[in-house]
Amino acid sequence: MTQKNFNYHKTHFVTSAPDITHLPADIGIEIAFAGRSNAGKSSALNTLTNQKSLARTSKTPGRTQLINLFRVEEHLHLVDLPGYGYAEVPEEMKRKWQRALGEYLQKRDCLRGLIVLMDIRHPLKDLDQQMVQWAVDVNLPVLILLTKADKLASGARKAQLNMVREAILPFQGDIQVEAFSSLKKLGVDKLRIKLDEWFNLPFDTDSEMSDQPEE
Ligand SMILES: Nc1nc2c(ncn2[C@@H]2O[C@H](COP(=O)(O)OP(=O)(O)OP(=O)(O)O)[C@@H](O)[C@H]2O)c(=O)[nH]1
Ligand SMILES: [Mg+2]
Question: What ranges do the domains of the chain cover?
Answer without folding.
Answer: 8-199
